[in-house]
Amino acid sequence: FGPPTQARASDWMWWSLKMLELRDDAKRWMGREQWCAERGLSSRRGWMIYGPPGNGKTLLVYAIAEELDLPIYALDLSAMTSRDFVSAWKQASTNVPAIVLVEDFDSTIVGRRNIRSQEHGVAFETILNCIAGVRRTGGILFVMTTNDPTAVDPAMCSMEDRESDEESRPGRIDLRAE
Fold first, then answer.
1. Percent of the chain, pLDDT > 90?
2. Considering the entire predicted model, what is its pTM?
3. Which of 35, 82, 135, 138 makes an SS bond possible with 43, Cβ 3.0 to 4.6 Å?
4. Does the pLDDT value for residue 134 go beyond 80?
5. Who has greater pLDDT, 74 or 16?
């Protein structure tokens, strides 16, 4: 009776230990919102999820968003200008808590260079300023996915400590996970 309803991804997908850690990290982040507000701190979080194509990076983000009832702002860097990125970031910041998802970061920005469009694409500095600039926006869980984590500039996410996937570059990408 009526149209079929689609099962939530979080109900049918297999959750690895690392995936459960990320889900729990998102829950803790959401639980700190009031604590941060009382202290005048920005309640933001940043993740880098990396691995080969097709291994479920995006599915994981959608499953966490469904489970926590968070809107996702999926930004396509290859089709944006810096002005577009700033506008999308501002829009997401009016509907917090929210997830801002940038998929395949390394397919558009390698190091600090936009390999798609030097003149009209999103500048690396624009992304850094939105994530951790002077006007820090609270309530955003910034998630970037990448196939090649070594292509990401250390100013965004440090990959120096290969032993640990836990801590990274607090203030921009706080956590990285394979």
1. 51
2. 0.86
3. 138
4. no
5. 74
Question: What number of CA atoms fall less than 13 Å from residue 111's CA on the CB side?
Answer: 2
Answer whether 71's CB lies under 8 Å from 95's CB.
yes
Per-residue three-class SS string for the chain: CCCCCCCCHHHHCCCCHHHHHHHHHHHHHHHCHHHHHHHCCCCCEEEEEECCCCCCHHHHHHHHHHHHCCCEEEECHHHCCHHHHHHHHHHHHCCCCEEEEECCHHHCEEECEECCCCCCCCCHHHHHHHHHCCCCCCCEEEEEEECCHHHECCCCCCCCCCCCCCEEECCCEEEEEC
